[in-house]
Write a structure and sequence with these properties.
heterodimer, A: 256 residues, alpha+beta, 5-stranded antiparallel sheet, 4-stranded antiparallel sheet, 7 helices, 9 strands, B: 146 residues, mainly alpha, 8 helices
Chain lengths: 256, 146
């Protein structure tokens, strides 16, 4: 029976409720594998596990539960070891590294911030900033909407202006929130959102962070900010190249 | 959408923005070489779907149209000077109108998630349906036989 791994914690980590269900249908019972000072949160791995909604949720829920009691290094969804011994073997082999990461992330949670433009509001803003677009819109309107080429020309200008706004807003949002976070991890770009940044925040400092989020909402009414957290520190388990230099959650960043 | 359950604590995974968190659960987190990962085939498709191509003829025309419809008179007054007004507009149901190429696709997916979740939290979208009314014990026996 292969073993599904949710995350790594310290052994001193308080045990959580017996009936916590993991991935699979029916949910496989969550177990703890101890090795030295470390412990892995695992369950049996269901045959043919796929990233289904309920399994993703189960992964997330187990980690949230484990993270509520103390620091946890969340595994990426879908990590399966051949057996329990492989898991404890890995814990033993890299114990120092994991212990260091757990210390660095102690008392910290991740907030993921995604932002998109409110289309109508951003169009207003772009128009108010750009006389050329205003003039062209007015001309088109008087011409009963304008010709195909005219509409295309206007649209192209507007899209370019909106994209420029996106880039500026992305920087502004990140700059506003950086000072109230312990570390920053920029997520993959996508046209689905203009900002996708994770912030590592002291659990105790969540209030100032969320206050700043509200401030950004007020100062940037054309941006829709979606904040998810507190989450297990998915984006901060490894100091990686994705993070800007000097902003990783290394030992220096940890308040010990 | 503007009001976000930012203070949400762990455990209630079902009510958080799964779509927004999904990306973290699938793409970040610890990876250990000695472990294998399950196939993420279905999910890759989902991720590509949100990558709306902004720079296309359709988008240009749509934006030109949106500009034509905008009330220019209220434009400069409305934004960025009066956040309250914009805030009210956004919250009072203009959401349908205000989502488009920029946010539409992402929202559609997140809406789809929410909807599907509301419809039957635990139900899977994939085939191979298993009668859900079976008792837990019966299902457990079944699992053990697998």
């Amino acid at each position: 029976m292969s073993t599904y791994v949710y995350g790594i914690t310290a052994k001193s980590h308080p045990a959580f409720s017996e009936d916590l269900g993991g991935v699979g249908d029916p949910p496989r019972p969550v177990r703890i594998l101890e090795q030295g000072e470390l412990a892995a949160v695992v369950s049996d791995a269901p045959e043919g596990l796929r990233p289904k909604r309920r399994d993703l949720l189960a992964h997330q829920t187990v980690l949230a539960e484990a993270g509520a009691a103390g620091p946890v290094l969340p595994m990426r969804f879908g990590s399966v070891a051949p057996d329990d011994d492989t898991v404890t073997g890995v814990l033993a082999e890299r114990a120092d590294h994991y212990k260091e990461r757990l210390r660095a992330l102690e008392g910290k949670v991740e907030y993921n911030v995604k932002a998109v433009h409110q289309e109508e509001a951003v169009l207003h803003r772009v128009m108010s900033e750009n006389p050329e677009i205003r003039a062209l819109t007015e001309a088109n309107r008087q011409a009963g909407g304008g010709s195909y080429e005219q509409r295309l020309q206007l649209g192209e200008m507007v899209v370019a202006a909106v994209k420029a706004r996106e880039a500026e807003d992305a920087v502004e949002v990140q700059r506003a929130l950086e000072p109230v976070a312990a570390a920053v991890s920029v997520g993959p770009e996508s046209t689905g959102w203009l900002v996708n940044v994770s912030f590592l925040v002291d659990r105790d400092a969540a209030e100032p962070f969320l206050t700043e989020v509200e401030n950004v909402r007020k100062s940037h009414p054309h941006i829709e900010l979606r904040v998810n957290g507190p989450l297990p520190p998915y984006s901060f388990v490894e100091p990686g190249p994705a993070e800007p230099a000097g902003s990783t959650a290394g030992p220096d960043a940890a308040q010990e | 959408m503007t009001v976000v359950p930012a203070q949400q604590t762990g455990g209630g995974g079902g009510s958080s923005g799964l779509y927004d968190v999904l990306e973290l659960v699938l793409d970040r987190g610890l990876v250990i070489d000695a472990f294998v990962r399950v196939s993420l085939v279905g999910i890759e498709i989902l991720k590509i779907d949100i990558r709306v191509v902004v720079a296309s003829v359709d988008t240009y025309l749509r934006f030109a149209e949106a500009c034509n419809r905008l009330d220019l008179e209220s434009g400069p007054n409305k934004s960025p000077g009066l956040p309250d007004v914009v805030g009210q507009v956004t919250e009072s149901g203009a959401r349908g109108k205000s989502k488009g190429a920029l946010s539409g696709a992402a929202e559609t997916i997140s809406d789809a998630f929410r909807q599907a979740r509301d419809e039957g939290g635990e139900q899977e979208t994939e085939s191979r349906p298993r009668p859900r009314k079976k008792t837990a014990a019966a299902r457990r026996r079944e699992e053990e036989q697998e």
